[in-house]
Amino acid sequence: MKAHPQLALLFVFSIFLLSACVKSDPSLDHQAEKNQIQMTKVAELAADEKPIKVKVVIVTMFEIGELSGDTAGEFQLWKERRDLSQKFPFHGYKDLYFNKDSGILGIVTGIGTARSAAAIMALGMDPRFDLSKSYWLVAGIAGFDPEDASVGSASWSEYQIDGDLSHEIDAREIPEDWEFGYFARYTKMPFDPDKPAPTGEMYQLNTGLTNWAYQLTKDIDLGDDESLIEVREKYTEHEMARKPPFVLKGANMSSYTFWHGAILNDWANKWTDYWTEGKGNFVSSGMEDTGSYLSLSWLDKIGRADKNRMMVLRTASNYTMQPPGMTAAENLLNENKGYGGLKVAIESAYVVGSKVVDELLGNWSHYRDNIPYADPVLENIAP
After folding, report:
1. d(CA 166, CA 39)
2. Which helix (H) or strand (E) holds 231?
3. pLDDT per residue over 307-358, tens digit each?
4. 20 to 30 A Cα–Cα from 337, which one of 9, 21, 128, 349?
5. Would you call 368 exposed, middle or buried from its count of C-beta atoms within 10 A (0-12, 13-18, 19+)?
6. Distance of alpha carbon 323 from alpha carbon 19, whole angstroms
């Protein structure tokens, strides 16, 4: 990919537009001026230099405190263990970090589909980088359905389901024969079989690449921890929730609302089944990935990225519903004090994701132009 002065000029022009928008607020003038100067320098540099070829983009969504040296969020282990030390200023949630020797670029998008969509689009349009051959690995934590897996487990996403794009009527006002107040746009009832084709409600990732990543990692020992055992033992009615962590495949739901509870968990399963026509199984609940994929798919249309190189790995920090003997409110409020599986889930995301990254980088001469592929396997079996 050649350097594009047009993109650089577009960056500069966008800053001028932003400055015009904020002129009415004097308190923002100074910051707008600083942003304009910094981004003008970025654009000038990008116009003069060849874009940096990125092999793998690690997409994380949040960090707890500092980017290194304290309690790790999703990004910290990647930054420290992959020596992502070259900083690139980025007017998003966090700056970008790169390892020029390995070709790994790390981004923290911020939480929620809007932030992730904006961050991925901004990165994709950044003239400093050539992302045309990049693989995109989303590596983040999520809530998991206790019917399918245990805390600390890792799931490769086959489908991205949007949990926001719909109609909704408050459950206290729905007809008596409705199970939920949530139903698809342009339909007449929940799970109406006469539904339109999805226009953002569901995305299917590259099946061959997802199968390849799963088969490469399915036998990894994710270890165990006393804190996980304590959480697992509460779920006496869910066999899979009581097993040690393992790797599986499934569908991931993204929504801006951090929902929780047995009723909404049941809805998530049925919503996933509805949009995938029975092909997808709801496993994990995050808050960003439909936004990330949408931006990547639009970048794909203009040759800035390849949507078929996206992989989504979610690891279980908690469950999406309460155990027996607790209400949904009690369990969610208790989790807000800290997820019992957070530390292990963060480690699982790095360990499982690293297996894929190492394979890609170790055989880059092949994978640069040939996306790995594997046929599906029958097992999604816990040890």
Report:
1. 38
2. helix 226-232
3. 999 999 999 999 999 999 999 999 999 988 888 899 999 999 999 999 999 9
4. 349
5. middle
6. 52
Main-chain phi, psi angles of 136, to 5 degrees:
-115, 120
Please report, as a single letter, which amino acid is at residue 190.
P
Q: What whole-number distance in Å separates Cα of residue 191 and Cα of residue 179?
A: 10
Picking from 237, 55, 230, 252, the residue whose alpha carbon sits closest to that of residue 152 is 230
Q: What is the pLDDT of residues 265-289, one digit of tens each?
A: 999 999 999 999 999 999 999 999 9
Burial annotation 352-367 (CB, 10 A radius, 16+ → b, else e): bbbebbebbeeeeeeb
Mean pLDDT for the stretch of residues 80-100: 96
- CA end-to-end span of the chain, whole Å? 45
- Reported residue count of the chain is 383
The continuous run of DSSP H or E covering 88 comes out as strand 86-88
In Å, how far from its chain's centre is CA 67?
18
Return the pLDDT at 227: 85
Block residue for tokens 């001028």? 16
Element (H, E) at 209: helix 207-217
Residues in CB range of 134: below 8 A, 6 or more apart: 54, 55, 56, 57, 105, 305, 306, 309
Q: How far apart are CA 199 and CA 297, in angstroms?
A: 13
pTM of structure: 0.88
Rounded mean pLDDT of the chain? 90
Q: At residue 131, what is the residue type? A: L
Using the Cα atoms of residue 216, residue 221, residue 225 and residue 228 in order, give the sign of their dihedral: positive
SS3 (DSSP) at 163: coil
Contact criterion met (CB below 8 Å) for 150 and 245 = yes
DSSP string, 5-63: HHHHHHHHHHHHHHHHHHTT-GGGHHHHHHHHHHHHHHHHHHHHSPPEEPSEEEEE---
User: Up-side HSE of residue 203: CA atoms within 13 Å toward CB?
Assistant: 25
Q: How far is 287 from 260, CA to CA, in rounded Å? A: 13
Single out the residue of 228, 267, 242 nearest to residue 324, CA to CA. Answer: 242
State both tokens at 238.
């869910």
